[in-house]
Amino acid sequence: MSTITLAMIVRNEAHYLAACLDSVKDHVDEIVIVDTGSTDHTLHIAAGYTDKIYPFPWQGNFSEARNYAIGQSTGEWILSLDADERLVCPTGHLKEILSRDPRIEAYMLPLDYQINEQTGEYNRFLVLRLFKNKKEYFFTGPIHEQVVIQKKETVGQVDSLHIQHTPVSAQERNRKRGRNLTSLKKACAANPEDPFLQYYLGVEWLGLGKPRRALPLLQKAYRHLTDEHILVRAPALRYLLLCLNAMGRFDQTICLGQEAALAYPDYTDIYYLTGLALSEKQEYKLAVKWLEQSVQCGVPPAYYSHMQGSGGFLAYYHKGYCHEKLGQEAEAKACYEKALRENHRFFYPVGSLFLLLLRNQGARRAVDYFKGEKFFNHPPIALTLAEMLFALGSPGMARECLEGEVSTDSYEEILFQRGKYHIYCGDFRRGLIYFDLLPENSIFLEKVYLHKALALWLSGAYQEGRELALTLWKNPGLRPLAKVLLEISSRLQQDLTLEPKEHREGLEFTEASLLFDLCGRYLPDLPAVGCHHLKKLTGILQNRLLGATGGVSWLDEYYKDKIQGIQECFHSRFGWVKWRHE
C-alpha cells in the first residue's frame, strides 16, 4: 500500500497545529514540518508528533518553503495542509483511494472554508493537495501557490473526504490578508496581466470590505480566464456577483447573472445571487423564480466554487421573504420551515416565521407551533426565539423555549438564559440557582451580576445587593457597574428616591439605562411578587436618568419606542387604524 507524507510549512501556529495534526496522524506514514520562524510554542507542539522538523528562513515566497518540505519527504504521495486546516476522512479511506486507479497521480480535494461559524455556512472549493512525490510536481507562485499537473487525465477528484478550514479570529484574518496583499501587489507589479493574480488580489480586497478596489480586478480576471481554468473562473464569477451586490449595482448583477446562466446553467450560485439582486430591487416575482431555480439546481458540480446553502436553506430563506412581500403567507411559511429544517444552526428564519405566526395566530399559538414541530430541540432556534419573546415582554414564554435538556453545544448560554428568564418571571430562587451553575470563567459572568442584583432588589434583599456591589468593586474592570449597584442598593435600603437635581456628573449612565430597560421586562407569574420593590427601583432609576446628561432624550425615545411597538403589533394583527390622541 502506498505511503503518504504530510508536508507542512508553519509559523506561529500554536493555536491550531495540534488539531490539524490530530486529524491526519492516523492517515499518513510520515509528518514533515518546515518552520519559517516561529516564536510561540509551535515547535514544541510539532515535536509531539514528529522528529522531522526543519528550519527554513522566510524569503517571502510560499512555494520555496513548501518545495523544501517536499524535498525532506520520503513518502510516495504528498499531502499538503495548512495548520488551520483539518482532514475529515474515515480511517483507512485515504490509502484506499490511492489504490483505486494507478493512472491517477494527483487528486483534487474539497476544501470547506467556513464563513460563519455560528450558522455553519461555508464556501467549498476544489484544491489540489494530494499528489505523487515526483520531481516534476512542485509548487509555483510566491503566494496562493499551486502544483501544476500538465496531464489533466492524471488528475482525479475525491468527494468522500474533505479538508475543513478552521475559522480564525478577525485580527488574525486581517493580519494574513495584509500579508497577502503585500505579496500580491508585488507579484502583480511584476506580472500586471496575470488573471490569476488579479483574481486573488480582488478576493483579498473583497474580504477586507473594499468592493470598489476588488471590482476591476475581478472583472479583468473573469474576462481573461477561460473554461480551461474553470476552477478559478467559477469563483471569479461568484465573487464578481457578490462584489456588485455589495456595491448596490443590482442591475449589473442581474445582467451578468442572465449572461452567465446561459454559459453555466447548472451553477447554483448564479441563480441565488441574481435572485438576491432582484429582491433588493423589489422585483419579488422574478426573484422567486431565480431563487426557485437555485433550489432546483441544488449542489452544483464540484468544479464550481459553491456557497453551501445557496441551493437550499439560504435560497429558501430569501424566497420566503419574497413570498411574504407578495402577500403569499402560506408559501412564505413553508419556505421558512424548510430553511430551518435544512440547517438548524441558521437561525435567521426564526424571527420571520415567528412574526408571521404572531400576526395571524398570536404569541401563545406561535410558541406552541415551534414546540410541536420540535424546533426547540435545536439550541440556536430555541435561544433565538426565547430572546425575541423576552424582548417583546414575555419572559414566561421565553422560559418555555428552553425547558428541554441542556445541550452541550450551548450549555453556558442556556444556563444563563434560563436563569435570566426565571428571574424576570419572579422565580428568583431558581434563577439564581442556574446562575450558580455557570463556571467561574464563563463569558456570561458580567451579565449575570446585573441580573443577580436586580433579583436581589426585587426580592427585598437590599443588603445582599450592596454586598454584591462591594465584591464587584474589587475588580477594576467592573467598577462602573459596581458604582451604580452600590448607589441603588443604598437608596433602596434607606428608602430614598434620587431626585434629578442630586445627580452627579460622572455617574455611569449606560448601566442605569440598561437596568431601567430590564425593569420594564419584569412580568412575574404571580402579579404581587416584587412589585413594591419594582416601583421603588424604577423610581430611583428614572430620576437618576432625568438628571443625567442626555437622560431626558433617552427616556423620551424609550417611551416612544414602547408606544410604536404597541402600534406596530396592533397594525400587524388587525390592520392599520389611525391612533387618536385625545
TrEMBL record:
SUPFAM superfamilies noted in UniProt: Nucleotide-diphospho-sugar transferases, TPR-like
Record keywords: Transferase
A single Pfam family, by name? Glycos_transf_2
Q: Which residues cross the membrane?
A: none
User: A GO molecular-function term, please?
Assistant: transferase activity
Q: Which residues form the Glycosyltransferase 2-like domain?
A: 7-98
Name of the protein: Glycosyl transferase family 2
The record lists the organism as Desulforamulus ruminis (strain ATCC 23193 / DSM 2154 / NCIMB 8452 / DL)
The organism's lineage? Bacteria, Bacillati, Bacillota, Clostridia, Eubacteriales
